[in-house]
Amino acid sequence: MTTLPPPPDAHPSEAGQGRTPPTETTGDPDAVHPSGALDQRAVSAVEAKTPATRKQKRSGSPSAMADIWNRYKRNKLAVIGLVAVAVILLMAIFQPLITPYDPFEQNLYNTTAPPDGDHILGTDVLGRDMFSALVYGARLAMVVGIGTMLMSAIVGVSFGALAGYRKGLADTLTMRFTDILLAFPLLVGAILVVRIFGQGVLPVAIALVVFGWPTSARLMRGQTLALRESEYVEAARSIGASDTRIVIRHILPNAIAPVVVYAFTSVGVVIVAMAALSFLGVGVPADVPEWGRLISQSYSFIRVPGSEHLWLAPAIAIVITTLAFAFVADGLRDALDPKLRGGN
Amino acid sequence: MQAVNGLSLAIEPGTTLSLVGESGCGKSTAARAILRLHEPTSGTVEIGGKNVTALGPTALRKAREDMQIVFQDPYASLNPRLTIRQILTEKYNLLGGEVTKDTISDLLDTVGLSAEYADRYPHEFSGGQRQRVGIARAIALNPKFVVLDEPVSALDVSIQAQILNLLERLQDDFGLTYLFIAHDLSVVRHISDRVAVMYLGQIVEIADRDDLFEAPQHPYTQALISAVPIPDPTVERVRQRIVLTGDVPSPANPPSGCRFRTRCWKHLELSESDKQRCIEEPPPLRGTGTERHDVACHFAGVREVLHG
Amino acid sequence: MPDLTKSHEDVLADTDVTPAERVLEVRDLRVHFDTPAGIVKAVDGVNWHVDAGETLAIVGESGSGKSVSAMTILGLVPSPPATFPSGEVRLHGRSLLDLPESQQRKLRGNDIAMIFQDPLTALNPVFRVGDQIAEMVRVHQKVSKAAANKKAIDLLAEVGIPNPNTRARQYPHEFSGGMRQRAMIAMALANDPKVLLADEPTTALDVTVQAQIMLLLEELQQRRNTAIVLITHDLGLVASHADRIAVMYAGRIVETGTTDEIFAAPRHAYTYGLLSSLARMDHARPAKLEPIPGQPPSLSRVPAGCAFHPRCAFATDACTAEIPELLPMAPGSGHLHACIHPGSVAEALAAPKEVAPSAERSATTGKAPVVEVTDLVKHFPIR
C-alpha cells in the first residue's frame, strides 16, 4: 500500500569504492592567484572547516573504467563469459596456427569418421577435420558477429541520436524507416538481400547489418529523448555548447549503456542467424566450414548412431558462443547501470 | 498554455532581484526565457545593453558568457560521466577563456572546495558540494548576469546557509548581478534587494525588499507572506494567517480578468459592481504611492501580515 | 546544573503527565541496517512520547533518522536488512512490539495512522478514492459496504473536500495536490486513530496550500483530541504548530523540550546551529547567517562520543570521550539536552549578531540596469 523509503544510504559521497569523501577547504587568506579572468580571495575558515574524522587515503580517483570493471567482476557468470569470449577470439585469431588440418581440405575417403587419434573430433560429411572446421567456423562467427555488431551499432546510434535529439521530421522519417525494416522477419529479409547480392559471407553480413541497426537506433533514440531534457544538458547549452557537442559529449556517454548491452547480446543473435541462413542453404557457400552449414550438412546423418559428433560439435559451439556473449552482456548491464543513475 | 504572460523587469548592476511565486506561476520558465534557454514567444531582453533576443544562434552562444545559470538540482545539473575538472574546463573551452594550470584550482578555491578533488566525479560529492561546483561553473569568466533557480531548495537547512553566504560573498567580491528564483520567502528576504511576486504568469507586485515585506499591497502577496510560518513561536502566536481557498489554478485555463480573483480574500469582501471589475478587467501593473513599488490590483491596499 | 544522578525513567516520572494520557511512547529504540558499507545506525537509542491532544515535532535534516523511528512504529521497516537491537513502543502503556504480528497490525491501522510526504504513494492510482477509504474502514471494523462508503464520504467532507459524493467516485489523478493530501488525511482518520504520524506532510505543497492543510490538522486535533507526531525539517512549521520538540542528529535525540523552551533557549550546539542558520522573513535588518560547517555524518560511520563534535564550534576533547546523555536542564524540567557545553551555547545565543551584507545595501544603486526585460511572453502549445 505504501512504498518504503530506501534504507538510509551510506553517505552519498561514499558511493565510490570506499574512498574518502571530498571535504571543504580552508583557503590561504594571503594567497592571491592571478588567473585569466578572476581575482581570488580565500573562503572564510568558518564555512570551510575540514571535518577531523576523515583520514586521507590516496589522492586522485580511479577512472570510470576501473569502477566499471570492479562492478563487472562481481558477477561470476559474466567473468566466465568474458573468459570464454576471450578464448574463442584467440582461437579465431590464431586459427592457422591451431588447426592441425586445413579446414577446407576434403578427404572423401574418410567422411563422417568418429573421433580418433588422427582427428580429435572426427571428420565431417566431406571428410574435413571437424576440429579444424570448428575453429575456422569460430573465426567466421567472430568476424561476422563482431563486425556486424559494430556496424549496426554505429549506424543505429547515429540515426537514433539524430532522431531523438532533433525530433520533428528527422525523427518521423527515421522511425518509419525502422518500422519497415523491423517488420521484416530477419531471415526472410536476409534471404532477399542474399538473392540480390549473391552468395557469400559479405552479403550475409550486409543483410544482418541492414536488419540489425533499427533496434540499436530505437534504443539510442529512447535514451536520447530522455536525456536531452536533463539539467546537465541544459547547463551545457547555457555555457554555449553547440548541438553536436551536446550530443557527442553529454548525451552519448550517458545513453550508450543499453546500446552496448544490446550490442553484445546481438552478437549471439547474429551468429545464430548466420547459422540458420547457412542451414537453409543461403549465404555462405557450401564448401566453407561454417557452423550452421556443418549442421545442415549432417542432417541426413541425424539418426545414424556413431555420427552424433557431426551435428553435436557445431551445435555446442554455437550454444557456448551465444551464451558467452549473453553472460558478458548481462554483466555489462549491471556494471554500467549504477553509473547511469548518477550514483544517487 | 500561457506560462509567462507579459513580464517586465529591470535589475541594476550588483543587485539581486528575486522572483517569487508558487508552482505554476511561471518563474522558472520566465528565467529560462530570459536566458533564451527556452525561446521566448515574444518580448525583448537586454543584457549589458545588448539585445539578446535578436541574436542569431552563433552570436547567442558567444553571448552566453554574460548570461549564466545555477540550477536547482545539484544531482541533475552535473554530467555524471565527466570529472569536475572536465565540467569546468568545458566552459573555458567553449567561451574562450584561458586555462592555465592554476585556473581550475583557483576557481574551486573561490567556491570553497579543495582543488584536490577536481579529478573526481560528481557522484562522490554531497549535494552542497555539487552545488558549489554548479556555482563555480556559472561564475567562471565573470558573467554580467547570473540566474539562480532555487539554488538552495534541494539542500539541507544547515547547508543552505553555507551556500547563501557563499553567494552573497561572491556577489560582493565580483559585483555579480543576480536574478534569484525562489519560493522560500525567508531566504528571499535575506538575500534580495528587490522582490517581484508572480502569479499565473504575471508579476502582481514588485517593490524594494523591505517595502514588500513590511507593507505589501497585493492581496496575493499578503496571503503568501502570512502563510509562511516564522521560526519563532512568540511571533507565530500573534500573527494572523490569511488562508486562501482552493488550489492554484492551471496555467492552461486562467480565470478571466484578474487571474487571482478566484482565490482572492479581498474579492469576497467587495461589492457586486467592484467584483465585476475584477472579472472583466485585468488589472495592469502600475505605480503606487510608494516609490519603486508597483501593484497589479484594482483595489490594492497595505495590510501588515508579518508581525500580527 | 543538570542533576546527573537521575535516569531518564526518573525524569519521565517527574513530569506532570500521568502515564495513562501518554498515548504513544518510544523507549530506547535502536534500528540498525546491515549494508555493504557497514552497519548504518539509523536510530540509535531514541526516547520520545506524545500525549493526547498535543503535537510533538521531531526535527532533523536528511540522514537524522527521524522518519525511520516513525516507520518502525508502523512496522514499515523491513527486517532484514533492519535489525532492532533494542526498543520498546508503548501504546496507551501497552507494549506494541511484544505482541504477535497479527495483533500489532490490528493496533496499527486502528490506533496509529500515518500520512506521508507524497500522497501518491499512499493512494493507489487504479482505485477510486472513496473505495480506498472505505477499504481502510472495513479492514478494521466490521461494517457493511454501504456503511463504509458512507463513512468515506463523511470523512472527505470532514477534511474539507467540496462535493464529497462526486469526489469519492473519482480517481487520485483527478485530485489536485492539496486535495490528495486531504484525501490521504481522510484515509488516515478512517478508524479514528489516537495518534497521527505525519512525515513531512506539506513539504511537497505550495505554502498557501500548506497553510490550509496545517489548519485542517489543527482543527481535527481539537475535535478528536488526536496526538500528532510531526516529522519535519521545517522549523517555521514547528514554531507555529508544535507543542513540544525533539531534535534529532545522526540517529539520536540531542535536545527536547517545549517549543518555547527550544526556540528561546536552545542548549545543544546543534540546535543552536540550526536556529542560527535560518533566514528570517520578519527581520528588517537580518543577521548574518551562521551556517554549520561541513556536512551531516554518514550513519555508518558516526563520530565517536557526541556525533556533532566534528562540526561544533564549542567542541572540546571531552566531547569525543563518550556519548553524552540526554539530561534535564534543571531537576524536574522537561527540557532535556545532550550537550556538555550548554554554557557556551547560551553565551553564543546572547552575543550580539553580525548584520548581513544585504541589510547594509540600499536597494538602488542609481546606475543603469544591466538586465532589462520588456513584455516577455512564453506560451507552450498544448498537445
Summarize the structure.
The complex is a heterotrimer of chains A (344), B (308) and C (383). Chain B is of the alpha/beta class and 308 residues long. Chain B contains 12 helices and 11 strands.
Description:
The complex is a heterotrimer of chains A (344), B (308) and C (383). Chain A is an all-alpha fold. Chain A has helices spanning 64-73, 76-93, 95-98, 130-166, 168-183, 186-197, 201-227, 231-238, 243-279, 291-297, 308-340. Chain B starts with a strand and ends in a 13-residue tail after the last strand. The radius of gyration of chain B is 21 Å and the shape is globular. By secondary structure, chain C is α/β, with parallel strands linked by helices. The model of chain C is unreliable at 1-9 and 14-18 (pLDDT under 50). Chains B and C meet through β1, α1, β3, α6 and α7 of B and α8, α9, α10, α11 and α12 of C. β1 (2-11) of chain B pairs antiparallel with β13 (371-379) of chain C.
Note the gap between the termini of chain C: 69 Å
Largest sheet of chain C: 8 strands, mixed
Shape descriptor of chain C reads globular
Terminal CA distance of chain B reads: 38 Å
| Largest interface (C-beta under 8 Å) | B-C, 95 and 72 residues
Sheet of most strands of chain B:
8 strands, mixed
Contiguous helical run count of chain C: 15
Order of helices and strands of chain B: EEHEEHEHHHEHEHEEHHHHHEE
State the total count of DSSP E strands of chain B: 11
The level of helicity of chain C is 25-40%
Helix tally of chain B? 12
**CA gyration radius of chain B, whole angstroms:** 21 Å
Low-confidence stretches of chain C: 1-9, 14-18
State the low-pLDDT regions of chain B, or none: none
